[in-house]
Amino acid sequence: MLDQAKILRGLVEQRQAAPRITAASAGAQRARTIAICSGKGGVGKSVISLNLAIALQRLGKSVCVLDACLGLGSIDLLCGLNGYWNLSHVVTGARSLNDVLLKGPEGVHVVCGASGLVDLADVPENVQRELIFRMEELERTHDILIVDTSTGIHRTVRQFATAADQVLVVTMPETTAIADAYATVKALGTPDAPPIDLIVNQADSAMQAKTIANRIQQTSRTFLRSAISLAGHISRAPAVVRSVAQREPYMISAPNSPAATDTHQLARRLLSMSGSLSTMQSYFDRFWHKQRGRAA
Fold this sequence. Notes:
The protein is an alpha/beta fold. It has 13 helices and eight strands.
């Protein structure tokens, strides 16, 4: 059986004569990347990632969700899909990117198994570049790329998050969740980090969400000398629990629920907050460089 590196080298040889086009080419566009993180499990990070993608799609944006939960991805399950093939199969050369691109609700695209990108550190540099070129197709064909990271603050999560244009940290009205949200902000708050904003999920009111955000903001200003803002909140609603059980996003199953209204407002706010991209370097190229730094 051919080893992984040999398969990948074969892919490179097939395209050696082809003209190379990168996202940084003159006039090229790339997707804005939003990484969604949480320090604690069970706060609704993946549910928000999927429903926010639908809200952004309804606002006229082409959206792709990259499921970067290491070994525990659930985006496909949350919207009734079955993503057997994933990015790990692209990395090994067993499948093409189109094979693993799932069409989700309302035209949102879903890609499972982003953990396979971690394996890029173990293959030759020229093979890495070929795979990065293939991955950049996601950015060339979408307006927004949402990266649903794993829970916690381990190194791979930080690499997925800090390569993005914006980071959203999800928390909820619970003491441990608030403490873990601050720990996440602290871990991600490097000098070259993208803007970090908060989402308070399962909030009983907008006032409660602001109170929680103020606590984290004050602590960040005091000890980290950094400012973060509240991107928005998602109201506590029975419809959210039902949507998870039914494997249908609440933006579809309960479009008039408080949670759906809040998610739509969050999407509009994110679009209004977005400015020009700080660099035309692709998300996957930035992630790859962070991987090289880890492997060095």
